[in-house]
Design brief:
Largest sheet: 6 strands, mixed
Mean pLDDT: 84
Oligomer: single chain
Structural class: alpha/beta
CATH superfamily of the largest domain: SGNH hydrolase
Number of domains: 2
Domain GAF: 297-417
CATH architecture of the largest domain: 3-Layer(aba) Sandwich
InterPro entries: GAF, GAF-like_dom_sf, SGNH_hydro, SGNH_hydro_sf
Organism: Cryobacterium tepidiphilum
Strand content: 15-25%
Distance between the termini: 97 Å
CATH class of the largest domain: Alpha Beta
Radius of gyration: 27 Å
Low-confidence stretches: 46-52, 233-237, 434-442
Domain SGNH hydrolase-type esterase: 84-236
Number of helices: 13
Pfam families: GAF, Lipase_GDSL_2
Length: 442
């Protein structure tokens, strides 16, 4: 009997064993080098981070919004491109670009809230997540790893922390929420890290990306999104990143995200939980409501709402404890009304417009004193107004003493745009008051 097949098998087994030994030697050498370089790489990360302080970054509210019905709510958590280096507004950075890309893909509105920090790594993200409210999000996008690649975080430590992060996300989020793990961009595509040390970090980033992709493939409701290098035409600018780059990244990310969000059901309007209400009230307490009451910009917004939507009256309200505070109105109204009688208290339960065409035909409102007695409201339309941290605090609304039939059209998009304008003005007034207090204290 010929021994050739046995010899071939032995030779193949020997070659495979030799290849494994060589790979093991390479891995050990690589990790020995990595361990030796860790102090140097961490010092580099700190030093370059100080240089990055001079690069422009957004200073406005950390959110991007795109109009549309039944809007999706997405949280973007991370560092690197999430920070918005090179632009002055988050609307031009990744939150705004991603909101527009998802809205364009789905035909629905989208709000992208941002929690980002240049020095955020996987360990810091796990700690930060413990105090966050996540049950309002349809999707969470995690964009971490640049700092971990630069600091040469061990792959095993990265995998363990990322597993903990995903478990915490699933425990704190809605049952239908989707999670997206964005890969680390090529490190040397960041001009500050285009160096020999950057190439070391880039090789390590590839190892972290492999671990992330493998973890995402085995986790429920989790998708890995690879991130490309910067656009060639963008790397020649002196602004680090441009709106064009963020739009390109957002488009490629939305290709993975939008299809997963299409199956999310329309979220029903529901009473706020006690925890939700405590968080919401803290957001109201941070506003400068005293300055809002006589603000001419807010007065102009409600005037345009009344005229543009052809209603008898328009109001901007804030739900404050057990009252509805009337911040601006086109007609004389009391400064406050009981929350139990408030239409806007129902509006803040959902993320979209509340339209009541005939209050006498709606069981929620037919016995409301504002319906049965003066001002005898028969039609109501309101859109929620949010705080900078995403809590729904009040509404811009229009009311009328005559009902509307289902055949009559109502311009929800215009009401939404005015509500967002009022929202931004409230944020601006709150920021001005905070700056004034800081100035007076110094």
């Amino acid at each position: 009997m010929s021994t050739a097949p046995i010899s071939i098998r032995v030779s193949q087994d020997w070659r495979r064993a030799s290849a494994r030994r060589r790979a093991t030697v390479r891995d050990r050498a690589y990790w020995a080098l990595t361990k030796a370089l860790m102090p140097l790489m961490r010092a580099t990360a700190v030093a370059v981070g100080r240089v990055g302080i001079a690069v422009p970054r957004p200073a406005d509210a950390p959110r991007g919004r795109a109009p549309g019905p039944n809007p999706y709510r997405v949280l973007l958590l991370g560092c690197g491109p999430a920070v918005g280096w090179g632009v002055r507004s988050h609307d031009l950075a990744l939150p705004g670009a991603l909101a527009r890309a998802i809205a364009g893909d789905t035909g629905r509105g989208c709000t992208v809230d941002l929690v980002a920090d240049p020095g955020m790594n996987i360990t810091k993200a796990c700690r930060l997540l413990a105090g966050m409210v996540l049950h309002k999000y349809d999707g969470v996008v995690v964009m971490l790893g640049v700092d971990d690649a630069l600091r040469l975080t061990r792959v095993a430590s990265w995998r363990r922390a990322l597993t903990q992060l995903l478990a915490a996300l699933r425990a704190a989020s809605l049952p239908h929420a989707e999670f997206f793990l964005v890969g680390i961009q090529p490190i040397t595509s960041i001009s500050l890290y285009d160096s020999a040390r950057g190439r070391i970090a880039e090789r390590h980033a590839r190892a972290l990306n492999v671990a992330t992709r493998t973890l995402a493939e085995g986790a429920p409701r989790t998708t890995f999104i690879p991130l490309s290098a910067a656009l060639a035409e963008d790397s020649s600018t002196d602004r680090h990143r441009s709106p064009l780059q963020y739009a390109a990244w957002a488009s490629s990310m939305a290709a993975y995200i939008s299809g997963r969000l299409h199956t999310v059901p329309k979220r029903p309007s529901a009473p706020l939980t006690a925890d939700d209400e405590r968080i919401r009230q803290r957001a109201v307490d941070r506003l400068n409501l005293a300055a809002c009451n006589s603000d001419p910009v807010l007065t102009d917004i409600v005037d345009r709402a009344r005229q543009g939507l052809g209603s008898a009256m328009a109001l901007l309200t804030v739900i404050d404890h057990d009252q509805q505070r009337n911040i601006a109105a086109t007609e004389p109204v009391p400064a406050a009304a009981p929350r139990i009688q408030s239409f806007c208290a129902f509006t803040i339960r959902g993320g979209d417009a509340l339209i009541v065409r005939d209050t006498l035909r709606d069981a929620r409102f037919r016995t409301n004193p504002a319906v049965t007695t003066a001002p005898q409201i028969r039609f109501y339309a309101g859109f929620p107004v949010e705080s900078p941290t995403g809590e729904r605090i009040g509404a811009l609304c229009v009311v009328d003493t005559r009902p509307q039939s289902g055949d009559e059209s109502f311009d929800t998009a215009y009401l939404r745009e005015l509500a967002l304008e009022a929202e931004r003005r409230l944020w601006c007034l709150a920021t001005d008051e905070a700056d004034r207090l800081v100035h007076n204290n110094h």
